[in-house]
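Reviewer comment 2.1 asked that we show a complete input and output for one of the modelled complexes. We chose the pyridoxal-5'-phosphate case, as it is the one discussed in the main text.
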Amino acid sequence: MKKDIIRILRENARLSDKAIAARLGKKEKLVSDTIKSLEKDGTIKGYQAIIDESVLPELAVKAIIQVKVRPEREGGFDKIAKRLCKFPEVSSLSLMSGGYDLGLEVDGKTLQEVATFVSSKLAPIDGIISTETHFLLKKYKVSGKTMENDETFERLKVSP
Amino acid sequence: MNMKNRIAQHIAVLPKSGIRDFFELVNTMGNDVISLGIGEPDFVTPWHIRESAIFAMEKGHTSYTSNLGLLSMRKEVCKYVEKNYKVRYNPVNECIITVGVSEALDLIFRAITTPGDEIIYHEPCYVSYSPEIKMAHGVPVAVVTKEKNKFALDPKDFEKAVTPKTKAILLNFPCNPTGASLTPEDVREIARIAIKHDLIVITDEIYSELTYDAKHVSIASMPGMKQRTIFLHGFSKAYAMTGFRMGYACGPADLIDAMMKIHQYSMLCASILAQEAAIEALRNGRPEMERMKTEYCRRRNMIVKRLNQIGLKCVMPKGAFYVFPNISSSGLSSKEFATRLLQEEKVAVVPGTAFGECGEGYVRCAYATSFEDIEEAMRRIEKFMKKIK
Ligand SMILES: Cc1ncc(COP(=O)(O)O)c(C=O)c1O
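Response of the prediction step:
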């Protein structure tokens, strides 16, 4: 039931507890208690709308930054990753296999702002060996949703 | 030239499907109609399946196939049928790929019917059965399934309908429009009667994957039944592939051979693009299918609960994506109920009489529509019921 609730919320976080309860055939109270406990134990981190980010000026420019780091004797990559998480400019951060270690997505108002963040905040950090910045030109799909509206197609209104 | 009196007599007397009339009426209404009248999935075909049809085109697989269908597809079909229905067929001569279950039905009726032969089927049922039997010059013999028996076929009623002219019995469980299934005991008993009277069994199991609580049991898997059963199945419902027009029949080689003769001359073969897509569905379609099934099951639970709350008594369907509520508490006939509900509250349901006379007093609601739309439809039906009381 926990997993069913998580799947439903991941698809549409705006569904009310009542609507979720109706889908699962459970009591509303049980659903709201479960959601509260999922929020408390950190399974659910928060709720966000999936938006066309270009409408917000502060998110107008995005870059994927591939970072190579020197792992530390204790804590490996975690210590530096946690430090990078503190920057509000960094909207997502993952440890990667392959040619680089950390993949960052960084938001900004202008190209200049993002470039400055990389050169003056990120690159000088002790332990960062190199950065490679790729500016994002267009997003086609975000969190499973395509950015362009698909044409709708109607079925017959009545069929056998 | 008057063409009316030149139409073949057995075609001229065929009624048009009751669904057709209702379809015309719904189409005159605006766009804010919520339709519970749609007998096909609201999901689009899973992408990996669509993609394999595209890939087939890219590869230039645009030819005819063998009359029976691609051998690679027949092999996958037989593997799938053995795994899920516990019957083993030889892909070389016991399986034919058809243009939907619709064509498979037409083939088997034409293959076995000598004019005057009786074919027993159960009503309320899918709209095509009786006309298809008549088009094959057979005599359809309806056995009524009752609400008090959860619309399952009572083996005793079946046996009562058997005459020396009976050639076959046609079964459709899970059933369109009632959602009914048979218990394994009923299946066994029906099989026993079919053997006793030496009948062919035609089983349309197009909704079998969409069986929610118990496990689906195919009559073809009962001892002694494989040699007298023609098993029909397709991709329209469980794999959301209605537009691909893909179905198949498995059965005794002699029957398949007779069906093949008709198919060879009238259809030649099913579309190769659709066959390639169907192979992908058979190989890798299960996870997506299970996801759709979970969603149907949730809708079923909700719609049954709501209809009963509203005072439209309905049994819990065991499969397919239909509920068949009893509307007698409204005091209206099926047709009046459906027409007034459409005109006054803009909800389309199909009058039960479209599925046979015994459907009077019922309507069919399909839950192959979004959860939210079904909830809204239930609010409107509730309002309608309050108003007419
Ligand atoms: C019971 C039943 N059999 C057969 C069919 C036809 O299916 P197909 O799309 O495979 O021709 C339908 C479609 O509604 C059906 O409900």
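The first helix of chain B runs from residue 9 to 12. We note this here for comparison with the apo prediction described in Section 3.2.
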